[in-house]
Every structure is written in structure tokens, then in C-alpha cells.
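Reference record
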Amino acid sequence: MTASTSTFVIVGASLAGAKAAETLREEGFEGRIVLIGAEAERPYERPPLSKEYLRGEAGREKIWVHDDASFYDAHDIELRLETTAVDLDAGRREITLAGGERLAFDRLLLTTGAHPRRLNVPGADLDGVHELRSVESSDSIRARLDRGGKVVVVGAGWIGSEAAASARQRGLDVTVIEPASVPLERVLGAELGAVYRDVHLDHGVEMVLGTGVDAFEGNGAVERVRASDGRLFECDFAIVGIGVGPRTELAVAGGLAVDNGVVCDRNLQTSVPGIFAAGDVAQHDHPVYGPIRVEHWSNALHQGPAAARNMLERDQAYDRIPYFFSDQYDVGMEYTGQATPGSRLVVRGDTATREFIAFWVDGDRLVAGMNVNVWDVADPIGRLIRERTPVDDDALRDPSAALEDL
């Protein structure tokens, strides 16, 4: 492969894809780079879409991966927006675009991200039923927030909880419907999920827990939501946030190994040499956690560049510890690592004050930590996880024991 005459194609003009293209140029790659995106917008970041951008506190300048729209032309990156890759022939090393154009590649990176999970119930296609994933969808919901009224949010995971908080902060009446007993139960467990339940209750959100949704009802547009327990909740619009699934269609078409995402090794290379994956779509072999797929901003930010270096045969294993953050009202948190099945919860501080650190411990090893309204501790938590330092529960609980000293 001659670097100056090679073609590297990146499918997915996402944060991971854009940072990969940037890194290829930073690393001295002189060949052709084609960055393909299905949306009309140039690459942007998603965290603001459920927070300050959704509330109208920030404009488009907050979301761009590269502030200057001329970045891609200036770095000779062919940014092809409103373009969809529909087929992959791994043997012939080419992808097919909608419309029939075939594009040959020497290296391919899939950063196709994830799609919102659909709620397959009657009325899900009514006007006013929104999913929150893209900037376009955030714009639509933001316009509804501007009109005020009442919103029903279906799902109390991170996106649903943040959207509910943003709507309440804008002064709307908010009802949250969630099948679990508390928000975020699958991620945080019942004890910490109750903390977020109480946060929303304290801000006047109606929390309808332990029941799902059977239907959206209305004459052309949603007017009410029918819960699985038979109750009806009137609304002016609804937001559905029940998680996402990886966009693996192109990988499946190309015969790549797929298992809850595109299966990758520690270098983010797929089962076909020369084809890589990064971001929400990639399930990679992590040296601490084993096969893992992470759907958060930090992962996309760092995996894209790591994949780019490995496309250039740098042979760098991706071993960063997962990290994400969430802001709801005046409660900010950072989560480092990934809790494993059967890990036990150890808490430093008082959850009632909403200033605490939660640790998840497997045996005598820390696997995850979440700091809530406590700052400057994410780095030592990450080091404890990465270095697999044996930890003592009592020391973790003790606020006088500095994490750096453990």
C-alpha cells in the first residue's frame, strides 16, 4: 500500500469519523480521505442535544466537531453529506452508495453510530411523537418546548432523564413513564436510581414507574399516552427515549462478524483485515472488560483517532477506561468504568445530600465509579480501574482517604 495513492473511506460523518479523518492528516497520511455522512449537517457532537442546545441556551456553534466549516476542504477531506452507503463488498474492497456509485478503498472505517430504538405500539407515528438522536430531532423538540404545555417522556435512561430535566427547566409540565422501578435502574441499580427519581420529583416531574406504554392516542397528532396499567396521560407532545441499537447493516452486508455491534480486536480492526470500526457501533476487545460496546461521547472522541492510527499500522491497542457525564438540573455526575454483573456497591458520602461517590467493586478490584456533585476525582478512579489496584471497601467509604493514595 502506497500511502500517497491510497484511498481511506470513513462511513459515518460522526464525532468518531471526523476525529479519525483529522488524525489521519495529523499522522501524515497523504492519500485520499472520503468521509461519508447520511445527514445534511457536517459532523457534530450529541451531548448538547439533550441539554443546553435543547433548552435554547446554546446555538449551533456549541455542537460542531470542527468550528470552522472550511476545515474539511482545508485538510483535503472529501466530506460527502446526505450520502448513504448501502452495500459493502469486503472481498472487492468497495462500498456501494445509494444511487449505485461504487467507491473502492484500501482501508475502511465504520463509524455508523446507533439508531434510536422504536416503540412499536399503536400511534407511534402520530405527529408530535419525537425521538431524540440527531440535531434535526433536537431542533423539532426545541420548537415544541418553545410553545410550552405538557410533555410525556417515555423512558428514564440517560437521554429520557436529561430530556425530561430540560423540558422541566423550560417550565413545561413533564410526566415520565418508565417500566423499571426507578430511573436508570439497569445502569445504576435500585439504590442510586432512587436518587435520580427523587431529583425529578423535587423539581415537579410526575414519575410514573413500573409500567410501560401501550399506545399513543390522538386525532392526527398525539393528545394522550396510554400506559400499560390503563392510565391515560394527556400531553401536547411526547418524547421517546428507550435506548439505541448499533447501526450494523453495512457490516452485515459485508460479512463482518457482528455481535451487539461490529466485533473488533484490541486495535479496533474487524474480522476482515483492513476494515475497522469505532464509536457506538464497535464492540471491541478491551484489556480490562473484555468485549465491550460503549455508547458515550468520550468513547467516540478517542476511538476514532485510535482507529485512524491503526489504519496506518501503528499497532496501538485501545485501552482507555470508559467515561461519560450527565447534567440534570443542579445535579452533575461523571461515570468512569463499567460495572460488571455481580459487582457490589460501595458509597462514600450521603446520597441524600446528592454529593457522593459510588464505587462498584468486583472481588477486590474497582470496576466503576460515579462521582455526583463531587469533582476532580474521575482521573484517580480511572487509574485505580486501569491499574487493577486491590481496594478495600472501608477505605473507599472513608472520605479522609484520598483516592490518589489508594
